[in-house]
Structure formats: structure tokens, C-alpha cells
């Protein structure tokens, strides 16, 4: 906030901050100034001309004017001009609110016209000569209802920064256009939904709303149009107010039918939260507004990817294997069968013959119960979760150097940083809402962006510097950067002297990492590396984002450590606007680990071999804790093959496809004596089970998730569980009770209370403190004080100081040679999540990207005779997959990119990957993969339809290009020309 000042509004004095927008001051004081184009998340647009006021006698737009102190503001002196502006809006919009699906108390245009008391419309509505654009799978655009406020354009250009939408002010009758004038469904639109969310009327609307939201909104067109025409005929005689009264009566009725429930997204780890609108089991729309991380932002999955909840494929009843088939069973029968089978194995072979795998899709409370089932009921530390497949190396790198295994700050710190360095992360597709923060700061504030990645994905295209090191060599250039900064005196000497230990050993370990050596190993030119290092050296603050391109290597932990070392060298921990951000992949992969679903840690990362910790849990649970370290996911598979692990309880993981070297994993499942799978669908993995239990997805239960920001948030039950499905915490409790444990949790809040009483970092967490959209970022003190930014006072080591941790370089495990001459990079897509169990059941997403594909470079395609749509076989040293080609310059040379989404076994990338792992964490080296490529046919068929957004052509500009509107001959400017010109120049 700026310097405190005062202004006078209609004779009353109000406090403000120097440079604050006048409209923000008025809104905070609840002074009713009409506004349609202004939205606090969008900032100044300046198109609607409703927020007119006089400031010291001159007409101003409150959304443009920034206060300096001492101004005298009057409202009524320009009331007539505001009404005229509103009436000009209505020329562009046909008011039929009673039968409009957008009449849900939040139609900004309706509410503004009503609140202004407007009762007549001197100029009638003029339809625009453009057809409704119905080409997009998720929303439609009706130009004739569009008031040209520009909210959607501002959201697309300046918040999401996908830069698809603009207003073509050069047309005789302007309209919103996509990529300059193509149908929405054939544009670069990534279906983030920002435009639909902020539209103040019904011009942009979710197709899931149309004909469903209101009492009378499903009227057939042949009846609807005469009704509208009749209403219009009555307007001159009775005015608008009676019509508004009728629509508001209808709106009050529909409130009883439309339920709005806050939830947290179940896809990636960003932690978006929003209201879900439902009518029965019909999901009308997702409405983001108050989320502490995302605000109005969503991605295609969070905004539109929920159809899977009502899929006909949902499991609705417990199933027990009967020979080659499964039969329906009761819950009691299933629980008794599971308990008897597990107890028999424990009695015969000991508790360590059983493993438990928790799910990163489940809640914190469910992860807590999974590890408690393993430790306090079965008696083993054999418990893990899928962080083993992705983020454990990042956690290890941070444990080694700064002490906590989580993001050191928040998304606000990323956005505020002077420089963002992205390493091995396709952020715009894997963590799109965090990417919007970076794109926004880069575009509007000039934030510097450096990207190190094999592919020229969107963030690489936008970067000030993009370079592509050879696969598996990031540790080398990162260590060379640390040496360069130290050698040239660019390191933060005071920060290191005061707050970091082990400098001498670290400096010695950097001796091999010269610029020349780094260039030779990485294949990046010395000049490029020096430019990168100099840019890092002169940045005021640095935030580093990394993901699976770093962690899924045999040196994933060491490379993550090198990132943390570089941040320590440059003094970029323990202050706002900087730090380490290992972007978590699944919605609760952070929380599953935080709450103890790991073989070496109790909840809160307290070691299982710490006597004080063991004593605490034995006293709390009344059970003797196991004394031997448990097995992780990778070790469990090996133990099954060796015959020591006999039974496995697996919750919500498609482990048969997502674990590396799937052939070996599926062979292990065949050897299990007893296998229980809890899931919402009958997955590929479930085929190997003895018992399959129907779980409830996130919309059908309550609990909490923890995002990549270490942010705990509540989710509320939106729908009742389908059929006999149950939340996983109830399923786990049922198994525990059947095994004799006296568990009696009645609500997830009971579980959180227990976790908070045991784990220090959750001491102050409670459901009351997480009510609604409130959130907490751990560690949370007992009084409820949380920690948005870590290490402001000390690092999480006994000395309070961070530690430089020396690392060395080792070559990747599966390198290309003459036979296997293709490097297969792999990872996520924006539209599909992971293997696609949920997103392939969303028709709109499947329409966008109906099948897996492999990206092939133009040069490789020319060499091998590959054309777009060729059917290819990729064969590694372990297996093969068949998939169609997409020719693109996103990849270069002999590197291809194979997304991990897979509809069928023969398309799953993990039939290619090896069993090699990161030495410190056993995370599979998914990214170290060599293969050979064959063309299987000469009858190509396009894998990506022509309407896929990747073929679109963005049209970047700043905001709505307000100058173009104001320069039109038919525009009446109600504001003093001098003031208007000053604003235009400032924009």
C-alpha cells in the first residue's frame, strides 16, 4: 500500500492510499458507483463509461483516476451521463432476463441497470449481423448479446495471457474475435474459462448452463422468441422495472434449485479453489472468484473437466474376484474378506509382508489414515504415495540444503520476483494457473524469464532466454552457474556468511564446473551460458521453478540440490519475491507426504527411528510401532518379485501404467497373494486385484488438500456418493475396524484434529480456521499463525543456518546409441491429466485431443519418412508402444516427446521406461529413455484434430486497445479529452 492520504466524496472524508484507483476507494467504502467493465482482478479497462464522477470539477472515470490526496469527488453531478452510458450498453444487449440462464444474482449488467433505476430504453436493441459462435466444446459466444465491455479480452490478454481474444474495433459493428477472426473452436483458445467467468452478461456462457440453470430457460426457440418479442412490445408502456421485478422473482426461485459449493481442484498441485454450481447431479458450471491462489483463474480441467464424476464407468459396488471374473459384494463381506486375508498373511509372514500405498488424489485425512492403518493396525512402515514418482527428489534437495521439503514461498512471490528461472517444467501445460502469474509479470511488469528445457513449449517461446541442455545435464550448468557467481564476486557474501554453512567444501566441489566444461557436457554454447549466468547475477531476486524434467532422472535429487545451492549462493531464500518452487504434480501429492504416507517419516516429516517421535505415537495410538524402516513404492515391486511382499492395499493410483517399466510392475501384481484396489473406476491396475472397492471422488466428500504452496484448503461435499461408493477415509476405517482397531472417526475434522495434535507443523490447523475460502500454509503455530514465506528468521536446521551440499555429475542411465538413437522425452499435456482416467471421460476434452500422439521434429520426420499422422512404433530396450506422429518444431533433432496420457496399454509410455532410479529417493528415471523408431504404415491419420488449440495463432496486444475504441467516429467521449489522453498514453 502507498502513503496514506484522504479524499472527500460527496462531503465525507475517506482514507485512501497514494496512487490507488479511485474506484477501489469507492468500492471499499461501499459507495454505489455503477461499473460493468471494471473487475478487481482485471484492473482498468475503461469501456463502459458508467463509473463517471467529477474530481475537482472535471469529469473522470473512477476506474482510471488514481488518487493523489485532497481531491473533492462528486457523484450526482454526472448522474445523467452515467445513465446515458448505460443506455448505450443496452443498444448492444437484448434484455430477456427471466428466461436467461445467466439470471443468477451475479449478472453484472442486469444488476447495474436495476440499481441505477433505469426504466426506459430510448434506443432499441440492435442485433449484430453475426451468428452465434457455437464451435467451442465448452462455451458459446453470442455477438448480439455482447456489450463490448472488453472484460473477456482483458482476462485473456492480461490475466491468462493466452492472447486469443481481441475486439476488432475496425469493423463497422465491432465484435470480439478469436485469433483475429476464426471460430472459437478453431482458435488458440486453451479453454481456461477466464473469459466466460468474467463476462458480465450472457454473451459468453458455459454450454453446461444453457437450458438448465433457470425455471424457464429450456423453452424451445419457437416459443422463446415470441415471448421475448411480447416482452419488448410491453416495455415502452410499462418500463423496465416491472420486467426486472419478474426476473428477480424467478431468480429467487432458482436459488432453491441451484446449489453453490466450494471445492478445491482435484487435478494438479496448484490448489485452485472455486464454487461448483449444481442442480441435482448436473454440474452447471465452475465459478472461481475467491480462491487464495487462483482468484478468477482456472485451466481447462478445473473449469470444464468434471464430467467423469457422473461417468457410466464409475464403480458403484464392492467387487470380489471369483476366478476370472468379479462378483458384486456387500461392504461388510468385503471388509471381512480383506481383514481375514491380511491377518492371515501377517500371522504367517509378519507385518512387513504387507504394503500400503496412499493416493495423491485423496485428502490429507485419508493419507493420514492410510499410514495409520499400516503402522498402528498392520504393524509395518511399508507405506508410500506417488510423490515417489515425481517430487521426492525435489524434496530431498531442499531437505539437504534448507530443511523443509516444500515451496519456500507463494505464487505471489513468483509473480513479484525480478527473474524467474524455469528448469525442466512445461509450466503452461502442467501448472497453467501458476504459469499465468509468470506470463502476466513478464508481459506487464517486464519480469525476466529464463527457461532451460528440451522442448520449445509455450514458456520457452515466451522466454527472454531459452536454451536446451542435453538430457540429464542440468546439474552441470547449474553448478557452473554457482561457480561463475562466486568466481566473479557476484555471490551474496553477507547472506552466506550470516546464514549458510559449509562454503569451503562446496567451493571445492565446484572446481570441475567451469563454463567450458559445462558447455561441453550440456551442448550449450559458452556464450549462451555466460549470458544466462550474467543475467542471474544481476537480478534483484530470483525464483526457480522446476518439475519432472529435473526430478525424473537418476540424478534428480542432486540436480534439485544444485538448484537450492544456486539460490543460496545468490542469497535468494528467506525474503519475499524469491526462492525454490518444485511444482507439485497431483492435487495432493504434497499433502500425502506431509501427512505421513512415507516409509521413513511419520506425519510432519518426523523420522520413524527417532525415539521421542516413536514414543509420542505409541502413547497416542496405544500400539507398539514397527522398528524397521519401510519399503517405498519401487522397493515394494522388487519385494513382490523376490517373494517377501505378499499383499498390497492400493488407493487411487493407476500404478500398473504410471510406475516405470510397466511390464515388470504388472508381472509383480500377478504374483501378489492378495491385492486390494480402491478407485472410482475399474482401472487397468484393478484387473489384477482380489478386491476392488468403489471410492468417492473429491466432489463426493469433505476433507483438505495441500497445494504446492504448502497451502491447506478445505473441500466440501458437492454431491452424494454414487451408488454404494464411499469416501476413502470411511473405507480405510472400515478395513481397520474389521481388523480389530477401535477407530471411531465421524468426520474428517476428527482426523485433522488428531494429526494436528501429533505433528508440530500442523499444530494450529483446524477446520474452523480453514472455513470457506480461508487457508493456512504450513508450518502453522498453535495459535493459528501460518508461514507464507519460509526462512525469514532461520532455516530449518538446529543451527538455524542453511547448508551448502556438494554434488557431482553422473551420466544418464539409458543413453542413445546407434540402434536406440531416439531420445524419448515424456510428460503431461494441458488438457489431459496423467494417464487420462478422468479426462478421457470428459467429452469436450476428448474432442480436443482424442488420442495419444508423439511429437516428431521436422528434421527427423524428413530423415525417416514420417508425415503428420504416421503410425509409429517406438521400441526401447524393454518394450514398445504404437502411436501416431505430430510434426512440430516444439522438439528438435532426434528427440521426440511422448505425452503420458494413454487410452490403451499399447500406448502407455511406461512400457518403454526402465527400472533405473534416483539413488537417493528411488524415483524412476522416466526421462532417461532411448528408443528406435519405425514407421508402420503409409496411411496417415491426423492424431490432433485441426481444431486443437496448438494450431491456433495468438494475437497479442495490450488489453482491449482502448485507444482504438475512443478514436472511432461513433464514440462519444464523456470524459475531459485531456484526462482521457493522459490515461491512453499511460496504458
List keywords for this structure.
987 residues, alpha/beta, seven-stranded mixed β-sheet, six-stranded mixed β-sheet, 33 helices, 37 strands, 31% helix, globular, disordered C terminus
What does this structure look like?
By secondary structure, the chain is α/β, with parallel strands linked by helices. It has 33 helices and 37 strands. The model is unreliable at 979-987 (pLDDT under 50).
Distance between the termini: 21 Å
Helix content: 25-40%
**Uncertain regions spanning at least 5 consecutive residues:** 979-987
Strand content: 15-25%
Broad structural category: alpha/beta
SSE topology sketch:
Elements: E1 4-9, E2 12-17, H1 22-28, E3 52-55, E4 58-61, E5 72-74, H2 79-90, H3 108-115, E6 139-141, H4 151-159, E7 165-167, E8 176-178, H5 194-198, E9 204-206, H6 221-238, H7 240-255, E10 259-264, E11 273-279, E12 282-287, H8 300-304, E13 319-322, E14 325-328, H9 331-349, E15 354-357, H10 364-378, E16 383-384, H11 392-401, H12 411-416, E17 419-423, H13 427-430, H14 432-445, E18 448-452, H15 458-462, E19 465-467, H16 474-487, H17 493-499, E20 500-501, H18 503-509, H19 515-522, H20 526-537, E21 542-546, H21 548-551, H22 556-569, E22 579-582, H23 589-594, E23 601-602, E24 606-607, H24 611-621, H25 633-642, E25 647-651, H26 655-658, H27 662-671, E26 674-679, E27 691-694, E28 703-706, E29 711-715, H28 728-738, H29 748-758, E30 775-777, E31 802-803, E32 822-827, H30 843-848, E33 853-856, H31 858-864, E34 871-875, E35 880-887, E36 895-899, E37 930-935, H32 962-966, H33 977-986
Parallel strand pairs: 1-5, 15-16, 15-25, 17-18, 17-21, 18-19, 20-31, 21-22, 25-26, 26-27, 32-36, 33-35
Antiparallel strand pairs: 1-2, 3-4, 3-5, 6-9, 7-8, 10-11, 11-12, 13-14, 13-27, 23-24, 28-29, 29-30, 32-37, 34-35, 34-37
Helix pairs in contact: 6-7, 9-28, 10-28, 10-29, 11-22, 16-19, 16-20, 16-22, 25-27
Amino acid at each position: 500500500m502507498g502513503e496514506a492520504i484522504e479524499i472527500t466524496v460527496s462531503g465525507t472524508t475517506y482514507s485512501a492510499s497514494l496512487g490507488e484507483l479511485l474506484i477501489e476507494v469507492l468500492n471499499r467504502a461501499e459507495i454505489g458507483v455503477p461499473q460493468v467493465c471494471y473487475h478487481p482482478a482485471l484492473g482498468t479497462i475503461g469501456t463502459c463509461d458508467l463509473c463517471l464522477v467529477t474530481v475537482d470539477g472535471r469529469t473522470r472515470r473512477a476506474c482510471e483516476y488514481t488518487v493523489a490526496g485532497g481531491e473533492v469527488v462528486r457523484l450526482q453531478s454526472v448522474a445523467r451521463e452515467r445513465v446515458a452510458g448505460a443506455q448505450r450498453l443496452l443498444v448492444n444487449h437484448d434484455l430477456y432476463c427471466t428466461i436467461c440462464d445467466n439470471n443468477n444474482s451475479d449478472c453484472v449488467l442486469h444488476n447495474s441497470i436495476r440499481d441505477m433505476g433505469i426504466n426506459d430504453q430510448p434506443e432499441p436493441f440492435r442485433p449484430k449481423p453475426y451468428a452465434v459462435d457455437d464451435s467451442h466444446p465448452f462455451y458459446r459466444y453470442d455477438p448480439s448479446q455482447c456489450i463490448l465491455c472488453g472484460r473477456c479480452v482483458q482476462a485473456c490478454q492480461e490475466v491468462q495471457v493466452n492472447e486469443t481474444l481481441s475486439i476488432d474495433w475496425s469493423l463497422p459493428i465491432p465484435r470480439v474475435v478469436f485469433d483475429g477472426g476464426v471460430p472459437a473452436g478453431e482458435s488458440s483458445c486453451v479453454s481456461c474459462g477466464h473469459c466466460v467467468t468474467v463476462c458480465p452478461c450472457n454473451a459468453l456462457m458455459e454450454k453446461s448452463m444453457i437450458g438448465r440453470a433457470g425455471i424457464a430457460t429450456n423453452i424451445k426457440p419457437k416459443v422463446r422468441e415470441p415471448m421475448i418479442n411480447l416482452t419488448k412490445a410491453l416495455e415502452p408502456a410499462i418500463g423496465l422495472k416491472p420486467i426486472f421485478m419478474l426476473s428477480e422473482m424467478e431468480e429467487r426461485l432458482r436459488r432453491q434449485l441451484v446449489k453453490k459449493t466450494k471445492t478445491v481442484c482435484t487435478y494438479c498441485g496448484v490448489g485452485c479453489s472455486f464454487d461448483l454450481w449444481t442442480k441435482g447431479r448436473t454440474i452447471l458450471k465452475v465459478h472461481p472468484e475467491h480462491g487464495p491462489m487462483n482468484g478468477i483463474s482456472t485451466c481447462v480441467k478445473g473449469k470444464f473437466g468434471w464430467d467423469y464424476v457422473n461417468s457410466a464407468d464409475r464403480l458403484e459396488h464392492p467387487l470380489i474376484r471369483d476366478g476370472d471374473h468379479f462378483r458384486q459384494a456387500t461392504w461388510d463381506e468385503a471388509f471381512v474378506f480383506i481383514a481375514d486375508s491380511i491377518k492371515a498373511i501377517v500371522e504367517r509372514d509378519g507385518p512387513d509382508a504387507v504394503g500400503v500405498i496412499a493416493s495423491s488424489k485423496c485428502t490429507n485425512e485419508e493419507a493420514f489414515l492410510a499410514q495409520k492403518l499400516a503402522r498402528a493396525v498392520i504393524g509395518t512402515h511399508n507405506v508410500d504415495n506417488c510423490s515417489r514418482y515425481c517430487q521426492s527428489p525435489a524434496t530431498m534437495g531442499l531437505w539437504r540444503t534448507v530443511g523443509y521439503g516444500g515451496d519456500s514461498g507463494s505464487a505471489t512471490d513468483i509473480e513479484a520476483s525480478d527473474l524467474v528461472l524455469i528448469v525442466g517444467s512445461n509450466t503452461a501445460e502442467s501448472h497453467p494457473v501458476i504459469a499465468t502469474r509468470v506470463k502476466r509479470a513478464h508481459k506487464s511488469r517486464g519480469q525476466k524469464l529464463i527457461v532451460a528445457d528440451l522442448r520449445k513449449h509455450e514458456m520457452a517461446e515466451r522466454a527472454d532466454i531459452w536454451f536446451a541442455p542435453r538430457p540429464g545435464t542440468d546439474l552441470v550448468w547449474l553448478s557452473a552457474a554457482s561457480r561463475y557467481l562466486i568466481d566473479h564476486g557476484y555471490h551474496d557474501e553477507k547472506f552466506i556468511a550470516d546464514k549458510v554453512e559449509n562454503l569451503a567444501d562446496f567451493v571445492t566441489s565446484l572446481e570441475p564446473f567451469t563454463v567450458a566444461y559445462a558447455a561441453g557436457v550440456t551442448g550449450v554454447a559458452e556464450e549462451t551460458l555466460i549470458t544466462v549466468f550474467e543475467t542471474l547475477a544481476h537480478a534483484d531476486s530470483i525464483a526457480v521453478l522446476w518439475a519432472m524434467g529435473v526430478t525424473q532422472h537418476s540424478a534428480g535429487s542432486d540436480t534439485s540440490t544444485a538448484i537450492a545451492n544456486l539460490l543460496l549462493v545468490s542469497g535468494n531464500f528467506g525474503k519475499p519475491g524469491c526462492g525454490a518452487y518444485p511444482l507439485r504434480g497431483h492435487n495432493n501429492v504434497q499433502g500425502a507426504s506431509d501427512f505421513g504416507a512415507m516409509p521413513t517419516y511419520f506425519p510432519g516429516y518426523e523420522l520413524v527411528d527417532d525415539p521421542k517421535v516413536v514414543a509420542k505415537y505409541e502413547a497416542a495410538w496405544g500400539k507398539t510401532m514397527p522398528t524397521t524402516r519401510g519399503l517405498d513404492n519401487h522397493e515394494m515391486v522388487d519385494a513382490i518379485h523376490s517373494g517377501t511382499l505378499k499383499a498390497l492395499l492400493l488407493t487411487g493410483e493407476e500404478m500398473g501404467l504410471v510406475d516405470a517399466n510397466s511390464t515388470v510392475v504388472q508381472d509383480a501384481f500377478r504374483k501378489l497373494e492378495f491385492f486390494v484396489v480402491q478407485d472410482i473406476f475399474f482401472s487397468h491396475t484393478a484387473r489384477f486385484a482380489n478386491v476392488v472397492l468403489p471410492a468417492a471422488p473429491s466432489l463426493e466428500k469433505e476433507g483438505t488438500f495441500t497445494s504446492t504452496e504448502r497451502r491447506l484448503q478445505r473441500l466440501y461435499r458437492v454431491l452424494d456418493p454414487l451408488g454404494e461408493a464411499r469416501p476413502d477415509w470411511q473405507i480405510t476405517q472400515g478395513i481397520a475396524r474389521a481388523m480389530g482397531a477401535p477407530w471411531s472417526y465421524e468426520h474428517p475434522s476428527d482426523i485433522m484434529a488428531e494429526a494436528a495434535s501429533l505433528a508440530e507443523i500442523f499444530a494450529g490447523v483446524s477446520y474452523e480456521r480453514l472455513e470457506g475460502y480461508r487457508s493456512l500454509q504450513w508450518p502453522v503455530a498453535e495459535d493459528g499463525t501460518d508461514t507464507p514465506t519460509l526462512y525469514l528468521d532461520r532455516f530449518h536446521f538446529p543451527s538455524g543456518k542453511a547448508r551448502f551440499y556438494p554434488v557431482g555429475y553422473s551420466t544418464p542411465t539409458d543413453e542413445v546409441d546407434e540402434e536406440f538413437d531416439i531420445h524419448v522425452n515424456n510428460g503431461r499435456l494441458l488438457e489431459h491429466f496423467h494417464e487420462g482416467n478422468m479426462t478421457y471421460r470428459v467429452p469436450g476434452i476428448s474432442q480436443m485431443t482424442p488420442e495419444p500422439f508423439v511429437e516428431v521434429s521436422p528434421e527427423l520426420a524428413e530423415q525417416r519418412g514420417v508425415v503428420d499422422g504416421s503410425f509409429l512404433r517406438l521400441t526401447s530396450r524393454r518394450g514398445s508402444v504404437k502411436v501416431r506422429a505430430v510434426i512440430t518444431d516444439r522438439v528438435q533433432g532426434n528427440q521426440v516427446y511422448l505425452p503420458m496420457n494413454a487410452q490403451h496399454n499399447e500406448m502407455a509410455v511406461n512400457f518403454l521406461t526402465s527400472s533405473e532410479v534416483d539413488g537417493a529417493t528411488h524415483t524412476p528415471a522416466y526421462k532417461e529413455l532411448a528408443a528406435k523408431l519405425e514407421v508402420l504404415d503409409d496411411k496417415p491419420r491426423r492424431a490432433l484434430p485441426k481444431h486443437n488449440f496448438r494450431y491456433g495463432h495468438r494475437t497479442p496486444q495490450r488489453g482491449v486497445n482502448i485507444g482504438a475504441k475512443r478514436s472511432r467516429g461513433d464514440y462519444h467521449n464523456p470524459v475531459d479529452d485531456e484526462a482521457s489522453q493522459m490515461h491512453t498514453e499511460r496504458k
